Amino acid sequence: MADTLPRRTFDTVRFAAPRRAARTVLLVEDDELVARTLARTIRERGYDVVHVSDGRSAIESVTTRRFDVVFSDLNLPGASGVDILNVARAYDPDVPLVLMTGAPTTSTAIEACSLGVLEYLVKPTPTAELIRVLERAVATRKQVIAARTTEPSMNAVSSVTESMKALFDRALASLEISLEPIVDARTRALMGHAPKLTSNVETLNRDASITAAAEHLGRLVELRQLVRKRAVEVFLDLPKERQGSLFLDVHPSELLDGDLYAPVPPLSTIAEHVVLQLRVRGATLPVADLAARASVLRFVGYRLAIADLDVGLACLSQLGELSPEFVKLDHDIVRKLETSASQKRIVSALVAMCRAFDSQVVAEGVSTAEERDALFEAGCEYVQGALFAHASPHSGTRRVGEGSERVRRQP
After folding, report:
1. Phi and psi at residue 363, in whole multiples of 5°?
2. DSSP state of 239
3. Strands laid side by side in the 48-52 sheet
4. Please, which contacts does 47-53 make with residues 24 or more away whose CB atoms are closer than 8 Å?
5. Alpha helix locations (H) across 150-286?
6. What is the pTM of this model?
7. Helix boundaries (H) for 65-219
8. How far apart are CA 198 and CA 208, in angstroms?
9. What percent of the chain has pLDDT over 90?
10. Looking at residue 39, what is its pLDDT?
């Protein structure tokens, strides 16, 4: 692979450095008993421990603070451990990364090595092994920092910025758009698709890290426009009976973009198939303005969805103002739903509320049949995730630079 990085030197994105937290370890673990045991051992070695239990909190931590070491479980609510370590590497290229799992596989071990993970631990981890890895990680960190202090710093900021831009450009050049199926929770019938992003750049090879880079470079709109354009091309290449609806992300600020309203290809020509999926987190436009623009978009022919329903009162207010045709439940709510009666009651209440606004509910990130069945029992109409890849045998994958004649079929 052309963009595979050397094992011991990382050609990576570097964002503005978060504030330094002296002698602090980030522990990302959703099992409270395991987390307490690990945290106690690390504290006994003289380190502060910041413990978080889900992917969203972990990503917020690594983007706002710097740590001596990051220990992360592989399977987490909100994001995989690999996703978290990708983002951590993007913000702090020197931080030692340790991936932990209770169910090791060859594929995740290979992925961990390609990311440059310092250690790949199998849980339960013996205390002596944890201490050995912690001390090795801290020593590695000190060596890297000492080496960096000898380097000239005159053009450091400029160099980092150019490196970040260059890597993002490489990610865009190798960007692949595939379509993830959305199916009826009851009948398993295909309802539509949502784009998924990957690239050949190791630190920018997933949706979360690509989007984070775009946000910090001020190129989120560029990325969204590119993804929409290519997703439409892949969608149009599907047999008509396999198309259904196409869900496309839109940030509220993009509602100021005239391209969404213009009667020109490629998007508006298939507006009746398109659901504009509004990412409300961080919205800066007043709700009244959003509602007015939503009315215009519906006149063009689009339908609307609100994503990130779990973010709080701002989202619920927009649900009432916009009355979207669809509402997306975040995968944080979905994960292991079948094991939690209280979580299932929450989902049932959210579904009932959405129905009161005539909104249909789509659950994202469904990875097991048990989650799918639990969502159906809770009243959720549609489910989306890798579990249903077989539901769309004609879905395409397109690299950004490819023409329509070169769309590759997925088996």
Report:
1. -95, 125
2. -
3. 48-52, 24-28, 69-73, 97-101, 119-122
4. 47/23, 47/134, 48/21, 48/23, 48/24, 49/24, 49/25, 50/21, 50/24, 50/25, 50/26, 51/27, 52/26, 52/27, 52/28, 53/28, 53/29, 53/77
5. 156-173, 207-216, 220-237
6. 0.60
7. 81-91, 106-115, 127-149, 156-173, 207-216
8. 10
9. 10
10. 92
Q: Are 230 and 281 in contact (CB under 8 A)?
A: no
Span 159-179, pLDDT tens digits: 545 667 888 888 888 888 888
- Give the pLDDT score at 148: 59
Secondary structure element (H or E) that encloses residue 42, with its range? helix 32-44
CB 61 within 8 A of CB 50: yes
Q: Is 318 in contact with 287 (CB distance < 8 Å)?
A: yes
42-77 pLDDT, tens per residue? 999 888 999 998 888 888 888 888 888 999 888 777
* 88 and 117 Cβ atoms separated by less than 8 Å: no
Helical pair 369-377 and 341-356, crossing angle rounded to 10 deg: 50
CA distance 386 to 148: 42
- Over residues 202-212, the pLDDT tens digits come to 767 777 778 77
d(CA 315, CA 308): 8
* 203 φ/ψ angles, rounded to the nearest 5 degrees: -90, -5
